[in-house]
Specification:
The structure is a single chain. With about 525 residues, this protein is of the alpha/beta class. It folds into three domains: about 280 residues, Aldolase class I (TIM Barrel); about 90 residues, no CATH class; about 120 residues, Double Stranded RNA Binding Domain (2-Layer Sandwich), CATH 3.30.160. The protein is about 40% helix and about 20% strand. It has 16 helices and 16 strands. The strands form four sheets. It has an eight-stranded parallel β-barrel with strand order 2-3-4-5-6-7-8-9, surrounded by seven helices. A hairpin with a 2-residue loop joins β15 and β16. α5 packs parallel to α6 and α15 packs parallel to α16. It starts with a strand and ends in a 10-residue tail after the last helix. The structure holds 3-methyl-2-oxobutanoic acid (KIV) and zinc ion. The site of 3-methyl-2-oxobutanoic acid has 10 residues, from β6 and β7.
Length: about 525
């Protein structure tokens, strides 16, 4: 008998993008969506089209280009939300509308100010509206784990009768526990009439660090779709981490017999690296599966055991998640073939001019730095995602600084293609560069955070700078890498300002953030 498939519904581009600083622009979302398709996820939740023009545009672009996974768009139950979702999904070959409304009394009373009857009417109308144009409709009962169980049964029954085929049971505030969630899924499967024809889905937040444990409990109770994100990013403490869930099912097949996913696990590490290099948000070193230390054995007794036989301390291999040995460094004599192979491991599939450009940048770096590690490559490749709709392009910059000189920066920059140049003073060379860039771009944003780190060791190490800027409640992270940290700082600042400009240009007045 063949295994039953647990569907992987990836919401990195929607719930994940709601993490502070994880906003992505169109090209970045497309690059990630291509990688998710390669990873083999079953559904890509590409965005929330009514949230902003940017979301609408991105869902449209992903629907146009990505083939294989179902492409899903989120919508509240209002007619306008559903219309936006349908419009964005129009080019998709396998579209899904995902509509949601809260069902807990806490949300009904304090947020929606609606009665239970009104909520049921909303569900019925929204699902029917979506089903009128799309065969695949998912309904989510927001805050399900704090909702009255009998009302949840009514809500899901209404959705099912109106034509929904996936019933999602979100633990919106990360409040539930494995045994409670297990009971809830079992209860719903037993009490929603006709639910054997539907797929129950789980959606867990990690506020108590229980998202993966809760997800596994729901699978045991019969849920067959997991909503999750790469690196576990998402609102507040994040969502179920895709890599942890998938590898738990694979590594503990004895516990989860007869269940499998369609994920190509060797694409897990490339997906994690790509997301982290696009957003500039690092993965914590001790993060399960994809953290730097996940396969590092430090204690002598462990190293001794692993050298004798890996099975002593390793429950899965780094190769099984597509993690190649970092020992294999590239250098100035490495050719195109080795370079291309390494790019693929890092989640970058570059062709034509993009590949040639990245190779040239690699060679330039190899002239300055003897050994090129994955981290160095990721830093220079962050620019490889096409930036054709960027407003600002950093040109040359020159700095005067030292113990007796007033720090002064002269910066050249193109704004919408027009060359501009200015000179500014600052408290230090980075401050002077930032002041010059702020003047040229006329930004109103606030600089919230500035971090510098050396990527890998050695005097010739690349410096990587991450800059967080905020305007009008929208926070973005930019990053830049260079052997000169002042140049890296300028690149990071301009990168952040481009991202911000992209989002602000496409913002709608009615941006419903913070689901
Ligand atoms: O956490 C949540 O409830 C959500 C829903 C929109 C599914 O993200
Ligand atoms: Zn969520």
């Amino acid at each position: 008998m063949s295994d039953e498939i647990i569907r992987i519904f990836d919401t990195t581009l929607r719930d994940g993008e709601q993490s502070p600083g994880c906003s992505m622009n169109l090209n970045e979302k497309l690059a990630l969506a291509r990688q998710l398709a390669k990873l083999g996820v079953d559904v890509i939740e590409a965005g929330f089209p009514i949230a902003s023009e940017g979301d609408l545009e991105s869902v449209k672009a992903i629907s146009r280009e990505i083939r294989g996974p179902v492409i899903c768009a989120l919508a509240r139950t209002s007619p306008a939300d559903i219309e936006h979702a349908l419009e964005a999904l129009h080019p998709a070959s396998r579209p899904r509308v995902h509509t949601f409304i809260a069902t807990s009394d806490i949300h009904l009373e304090h947020k929606l100010r609606m009665s239970r009857e009104q909520v049921l009417e909303e569900i019925d109308r929204a699902v029917r509206q979506a089903r009128g144009h799309c065969d695949d409709v998912e309904f989510s009962a927001e805050d399900a784990t704090r909702s009255d169980r009998d009302f949840l049964v009514q809500a899901f029954t209404t959705a099912l009768e109106a034509g929904a085929s996936t019933l999602n049971v979100p633990d919106t505030v990360g409040y539930t526990t494995p045994s409670e969630y297990y009971d809830l899924i079992r209860f719903l499967r037993e009490h929603v009439p006709g639910s054997e024809a539907a797929v129950f889905s789980l959606h867990c937040h990690n506020d108590l660090g229980l998202a993966v444990a809760n997800s596994l409990a729901a699978i045991r109770a019969g849920a067959r779709q997991v909503e999750c994100t790469v690196n576990g990013i998402g609102e507040r403490a994040g969502n179920t981490a895709m890599e942890e869930l998938v590898m738990a099912l694979k590594t503990r097949r004895d516990e989860f017999a007869g269940l499998d996913t369609n994920v190509a696990t060797t694409e897990i590490y490339p997906s994690s690296r790509l997301l982290s290099s696009i957003t500039g948000v690092p993965v914590q070193p001790n993060k399960a599966i994809v953290g730097d230390n996940a396969f590092a054995h430090e204690a002598g007794i462990h190293q001794d055991g692993v050298l004798k036989s890996a099975i002593t301390y390793e429950i899965m291999t780094p190769q099984s998640i597509g993690r190649a040995s970092n020992e294999l460094v590239l250098g100035k004599h490495s050719g195109r073939h080795a370079f291309r192979e390494r790019l693929l491991e890092l989640g970058y599939e570059l062709e034509g001019d993009e590949f040639q450009d990245a190779f040239r940048r690699f060679k330039d770096l190899a002239d300055k730095k003897k050994s090129i590690y994955n981290e160095d490559l990721e830093a220079i490749l962050a620019d490889a995602v096409s930036h054709d709709d960027d407003r600002f392009a950093l040109g040359d910059l020159a700095i005067v600084s030292g113990t007796f000189a007033l720090p002064t920066a002269t910066v050249e920059l193109r704004v919408d293609g027009e060359p501009r140049k200015t000179t500014a003073n600052g408290d230090g060379p980075v401050d002077a560069v930032f002041k010059a860039i702020a003047e040229l771009t006329e930004t109103k944003s606030e600089l919230v955070q500035f971090n510098v780190k050396a990527i890998t060791g050695g005097m010739d190490a690349l410096g990587e700078v991450t800059v967080t800027v905020e305007e009008d409640g929208r926070r973005v992270i930019g990053h830049g890498a260079h052997t000169d940290i002042i140049v890296a700082s300028g690149k990071a600042y301009v990168h952040a300002l481009n991202k911000l400009a992209w989002h602000l240009r496409r913002r709608s007045v009615d941006e419903p953030r913070g689901i």
